[in-house]
Specification:
It is built from 14 helices and 17 strands. It is an alpha/beta fold and 425 residues long. It has an eight-stranded mixed β-sheet, sandwiched between helices. A hairpin with a 2-residue loop joins β2 and β3. It is elongated and about 65 Å long.
């Protein structure tokens, strides 16, 4: 089913404090840094709510300012008040006036967005970023197709968008293979295709690919721990890695790249345990590791949050001291609600999240194509790094693509402000 950008109610919710929100947006445009504590409930900021405020205020530049400045992750939606974020926001806001020039020339840019569907908070963040970054007030018309994790629906949605004669198609593919015939149809129709998130086999038939890099998450985590252990005077590292053989999302690459850095740093990997990827499997693996290695363990890295929940349960039951400023340091990935809550409570030390806001880069790419400018055909978005405190506030690492990434580590308490994370059933 297709939904226009204005009619899509799949993400609808009210913004309870619209006046505070409007004041915050005014300050963003002026370049004034504000904290997340200016909002009553950040988790209410979804795309329909965004459109509600935009229609109320009718601020052209606020449309893109909001979409760039709002970071939706597993625990909810948080505003980052970094100067760099504000600078980027202002750059985009300025570009919006050029888009308005195109609108004066009666050019409306239509975009078909083919999504996997709302499988998780992370996917909701990604979907909202695409739907929100292209406002109608700036000359865009976005049509959205939720394909409910069905590859055949995705292919059909693309063909439907071709019939609609859209200008661009954005696809978050469920599977990497079987896209050739569909992409040939796009080429024949002269419609550029931007792939987000997962890779496809026919990458020579697309305009661009925008993705996070799970292997970079592992590298970032390793360099964070290297800085952390030095500041905490931890000389001997005895690490336990817990993961699984899951291949679809390539999350196993996190532990692979972490291990590479560990080898260079001469850290001792006690065991690289492969479990079944469940909480129960990780719980059992941690119990066995405690019996085998005892007090030698001072670092546990899990491939994703589901496994880390089992590790925490095991450590709590066995009385092993863990978490911030405790003997066993815990590092996890994905940014689920439960784990960001654990980070806030200092039960774990650091959390690394694949950046979900694909829409920001899709906007840049389409904007440059429209102007005939050169653009990056492959965009690797660096992960978001969260710490339990300010022990490590900044890291620099070289990504798998060879780029040097200076990265700020966000203090989860400062990011969340005073807002409660609600664990939903």
């Amino acid at each position: 089913m297709f939904h226009s950008g204005a009619e899509n109610e799949g993400f609808s919710s009210a913004i309870e404090n619209s006046h505070a929100f409007s004041r915050l947006m005014d300050d963003i445009v002026k370049g004034v840094s504000r904290s997340s504590s200016d909002f009553k409930d950040m988790s209410m900021l979804t795309s329909a709510g965004i459109r509600h405020i935009l229609s109320f205020k009718k601020r052209i530049c606020m449309a893109c300012a909001l979409a760039f400045f709002v970071l939706v992750i597993g625990a909810g939606t948080y505003l980052l008040s970094e100067n760099k974020a504000i600078e980027t926001t202002l750059d985009v806001a300025k570009n919006e006036f050029r888009i308005h020039d195109a609108k004066i020339n009666k050019k409306v840019i239509s975009i078909g967005f083919v999504s996997v569907g709302v499988e998780s908070d992370w996917y909701l963040s990604s979907i909202s970023s695409v739907n929100s970054i292209f406002p109608k007030s700036c000359g865009y018309d976005v049509m959205y197709a939720d394909c409910d994790s069905d590859i055949n629906r995705q292919r059909q949605a693309v063909l439907n968008f071709i019939d609609e004669a859209v200008d661009y198609i954005i696809i978050d593919p469920i599977e990497p293979d079987g896209w050739k015939e569909t992409l040939v149809a796009c080429q024949d129709a002269g419609i550029p295709v931007i792939i987000i998130n997962h890779e496809i086999s026919e990458d020579d038939m697309i305009a661009a690919w925008v993705t996070g890099c799970v292997s970079d998450e592992g590298t970032a985590a390793a360099y964070w721990y290297d800085s952390y252990r030095k500041k905490k005077a931890i000389d001997e590292v005895n690490a336990l890695l817990i993961g699984d053989d899951e291949q679809v999302l390539q999350r196993s690459a996190r532990l692979d790249t972490f291990s590479k850095v560990a080898e260079k740093k001469n850290w001792n990997i006690l065991s690289n345990i492969k479990c079944d990827g469940t909480t129960e499997g990780a719980y059992s693996a941690m119990n066995s590791a405690i019996m085998t290695y005892g007090d030698d363990i001072n670092l546990v890295v899990c491939q994703h949050d589901v496994e880390m929940i089992g590790v925490i349960q095991s450590l709590e039951e066995t009385g092993v001291p863990f978490g911030n400023n405790k003997r066993v340091t815990l590092i996890s990935f994905d940014g689920s609600q439960a784990m960001l809550q654990n980070l806030y409570e200092e039960k774990i030390n650091a959390e690394f999240v694949c950046y979900p806001l694909h829409g920001t880069w899709c906007y840049k790419i389409i904007n440059k194509i429209e102007r005939g400018q050169k653009y990056e055909k492959e965009v690797y978005m660096k992960p978001v790094c969260y710490g339990a405190d300010d022990t490590v506030s900044f890291i620099t690492y070289r990504s798998e693509s060879g780029k040097l990434f200076p990265t700020k580590v966000l203090n989860i308490k400062r990011v969340m402000g005073k807002y409660e994370i609600r664990n939903e059933e």
